[in-house]
């Protein structure tokens, strides 16, 4: 498969083979985000089989998500070195091997290692490589492309939730893991769609540039190695006020984002809901999420919302958090379906915007390094969130407290983003005005100097 080329002027294609890349990213991201969620359907059976507590069983998804996020910088480096295609294919192979190996596990620690660490590393390769290549193929239509790619998560949740319940009832959790391992090898097919983007070359200037750069490459190998080391984690992002605001809000969201998904089926069963119906709550959430993500991408791409996309992101977080705060009021299955619908709307809006907002702040060039740094920091709240929620269930023997905790943290994060972005944009305008005044003063001084010199020459 030949490499894809960019526009003559070096701008992203915004179409063409890029839509095939979006399909590949849709599959890859779909598995990356859906598997830690839908595995929760097996938790009750695994918990009884391996005699684990709620907090212990929650570590499976938690470790998987944390490793997926922590591997961001490594994945970014591999993408820069080898491109997205081989990285995604390698990640798919790792995920398949992880699930097959986990089916032979006889201890909760073995599942932590296979599903959490090996599977999480594979998902990390899939996620970052897919996000990076979309930013190279799209610019004007990037919010839409991101929305369609991120819609892979709800599509796969909608499909895999009832499938997992069927597999569990038919083959048990061990046989189900074997089948899921085979399904995850489809990420290798998705990776094959991701043609590398070859930037246009100026034939007249390329040889000269190559000659100029050759001595530098030969004489500064040690310096190059140091540069690679510093690029692993680019700490210069911490000097960017907008990045810090985004990071703090994002960390607060991630801490409370996944526990309600992990425990939703168990909560429904505790309220007397039948097992298949409880599993379908995840499908309902995923079905709604499936349409919300591309719709959010379309809305975010409008001329009214795109300049204010950071505010839209804050609103989506507050909406999502309020759903969790209201969830304990819903005890009947009909009301839980309503909760699942609104949960899907809020969750879909947030994840359609979460990486678009980072691209908006950092730009295409700095995005791969920025997303690597963000994901490795997010692994800590990702790791602690679901087990902390499981601990609340163990202590109080009631699920409502985990929903209160998650909802409160997420609402606080959304309000923080909304208020701090108002402050950030105000400061940016102030700094720009000061810079313009300084530039104008310098120009005036230069004009005065020229006028004085001309008068002296005339005299």
Automatic annotation (TrEMBL):
Residues 436-459 are annotated as: Disordered. One of its GO terms (cellular component) is basolateral plasma membrane. It catalyses: 3-methyl-2-oxobutanoate(out) + H(+)(out) = 3-methyl-2-oxobutanoate(in) + H(+)(in); 4-methyl-2-oxopentanoate(out) + H(+)(out) = 4-methyl-2-oxopentanoate(in) + H(+)(in). Residues 444-459 have a biased composition (Polar residues). InterPro entries: MCT (IPR004743), MFS (IPR011701), MFS_dom (IPR020846), MFS_trans_sf (IPR036259), Proton-linked_MCT (IPR050327). One of its GO terms (molecular function) is symporter activity. Gene3D superfamilies: MFS general substrate transporter like domains. The chain crosses the membrane at residues 16-35, 57-79, 86-104, 110-131, 143-163, 175-194, 243-267, 279-299, 311-331, 337-358, 370-389, 401-423. It is found in: Basolateral cell membrane. It is a multi-pass membrane protein. Residues 20-425 form the Major facilitator superfamily (MFS) profile domain. Coiled coil: none annotated. Keywords: Cell membrane, Membrane, Symport, Transmembrane, Transmembrane helix, Transport. The keyword Transmembrane helix applies. Belongs to the major facilitator superfamily. Monocarboxylate porter (TC 2.A.1.13) family. This is Monocarboxylate transporter 2-like. It comes from Scomber scombrus.
